[in-house]
Design a protein that fits this description.
The protein has helices spanning 8-23, 35-42, 46-59, 77-98, 104-115, 122-140, 143-150, 153-166, 170-186, 189-199; strands at 32-33, 62-63, 70-72. It has 207 residues and is mostly helical.
């Protein structure tokens, strides 16, 4: 009896390709992703497309209603303001716990962000931006804080797509995060908390 294997590598490759397009802003919120069109465009079978889309739906980057094509999830400015309402106390806990410490993984993410070529897709910036903030949260050593923060990841990444217009000069984004890590690393606690609060107090570009 032959047991068919799932084309995991093809599914992951397609999910990666679509994820990059979403996080680079190439696929705007609300963009439909018909299975048949993606199958023809990428030269893969529809079951592979279906599984790749399911991965991104699970991540929160796409949404799907019954009998309709998957769509790029839309996060409104009101959604993002509520997101920050929840993120602020979580990152305040992080600042309190890490004041006076350097976090190597966060420094490494910043170095990778700074080293990205000028023509790198915005999705690469999003990835390193997320890696930096997640490294700070993980460094606290609280599994519950980490789990709470992870539930906000999809909306945070979609929000970061908007920042492409805010940070047309990528060096400004790098400099802001360098100052943030330096301030947390120096401490004391109140300075770290103020720096984190100020860092999270920004606009989201055009609605």
């Amino acid at each position: 009896m032959t047991i068919p294997l799932r084309p995991v590598s093809a599914v992951n490759a397609l999910a990666d390709a679509l994820r990059r397009r979403v996080l680079s802003g190439e696929m705007a919120p609300g963009t439909a992703l018909p299975e048949q069109e993606l199958s023809a465009q990428y030269g893969v079978a529809r079951p592979t497309v279906r599984e790749a889309l399911a991965v991104l739906v699970h991540e929160g980057l796409l949404k799907r209603e019954r009998h309709r094509s998957a769509q790029v999830a839309e996060v409104t400015v009101a959604d993002l303001e509520d997101l920050m309402f929840v993120r602020r106390p979580l990152e305040d806990l992080m600042a309190t716990a890490l004041a006076g410490r350097r976090v190597k993984e966060a420094d490494d993410a910043l170095s990778r962000m700074a080293a990205l070529p000028g023509d790198a897709p915005w999705s690469d910036v999003v990835a390193e931006h997320m890696a930096l903030h997640e490294a700070l949260i993980v460094a606290v050593g609280s599994p519950r804080l980490e789990r709470l923060y992870s539930t906000l990841a999809a909306e945070t990444r979609l929000g970061l797509v908007r920042l492409r217009s805010v940070y047309a000069d990528r060096d400004v984004l790098v400099a802001e995060h360098e100052e943030l890590l330096d301030t947390i690393g120096r401490g004391p606690v109140e300075s770290a908390r103020r720096a984190v609060a100020a860092h999270l107090d920004h606009g989201w570009g055009e609605p």
